[in-house]
Amino acid sequence: MIDEVRSITALGKVANYIPALADGRKTDLAVSVCTIDGQYFQAGTVEKSFTLQSISKVLALAFVLDIKGEEEVFSKVGMEPSGDPYYSISKLEFTNPTKPFNPMINAGALAITSLLPGHSMKKKLENFIDYVSCLTGNRKIEYNEKVAKSEFTTSFLNRSLLYYMKQFGVIEGNVEDIIDLYTKQCAVEIDCLQLARIGAIFSLNGQDPEKRNQLITKRTAKICKAFMVTCGMYNASGEFAIKVGVPAKSGVSGGILAVVPNRFGIGIFGPALDQRGNSIGGWKLLEKMADQFDINIF
Ligand code: DON
């Protein structure tokens, strides 16, 4: 299936607005599946690690929801898809009081990052990394310094979103500190297998596929999956729901986390992106899997 789809990667482009991501190899394409009883299947260039980028938004949201609760989280971010590109600032100006539409667009994700638990920025990052490590079955997790630095020095739009939100009281604290933390959060490295395992946890409503202990509360897992369906593929989420029909979250490094409830999690890596920032090969692969394995939840 991978070989059938690989040719479409020629039509995509590797992200270059974060300069360090431009090194990605366009033809790479990999998929892993982790079933709810902990069996793994994989195909393609699965040995490569990649940075989470926007996939980190759903993990940070799960972490912050379970630590701080819905009331605090939803006082800062809304629950509605925006229909705008992920970096858009426009709707911030038209909501009164100012509130990012949802935690999957950059504005909302930055607000969630500012809520990560910890007494210092260093500790907040450590806590987030420990959380991701716990979800991957205690693998050693690190962030890619080169990618983080590359984004930090070029994040003018994200800084604008933060300054706007600071003006209107959505975030507290120092903008540079939050950008530093956010770019490191986005630069956390993972591979397809680990991503598939995280998908399996969501497909089990928060339970570890091997030990069956609850890593994410059921309520939080359901909230995250609802956001993945409505906003996980950005302004392509509606089309993705129709063509594939599973909760999913993409990132500009080319990763996609997808969840087939009560069956399996899927981790994909394919750095060639379509115009809306989703892995072009990954999307096609998921369309094929939807046909072949009848995964559409609707
Ligand atoms: O904030 C950014 O622009 C990146 N760190 C993440 C964006 C992203 O992955 C959007 N994905 N489709």
From TrEMBL:
Transmembrane segments: none
EC code(s) of this entry: 3.5.1.2
GO biological process, one term: L-glutamine catabolic process
Chemical reaction(s) catalysed: L-glutamine + H2O = L-glutamate + NH4(+)
Gene Ontology MF term list: glutaminase activity
Residues noted as binding substrate in the record, renumbered to the chain: S54, N106, E151, N158, Y182, Y234, V252
Record InterPro entries: Beta-lactam/transpept-like, Glutaminase
Keywords for the protein's UniProt record, in alphabetical order: Acetylation, Hydrolase
Record bears the keyword ATP-binding: no
NCBIfam families: Gln_ase
HAMAP family named in the record: Glutaminase
Subunit comment: Homotetramer.
The family this protein is said to belong to: Belongs to the glutaminase family.
Official protein name in the record: Glutaminase
Provenance organism: Fervidibacillus halotolerans
Taxon lineage: Bacteria, Bacillati, Bacillota, Bacilli, Bacillales
Gene field: glsA
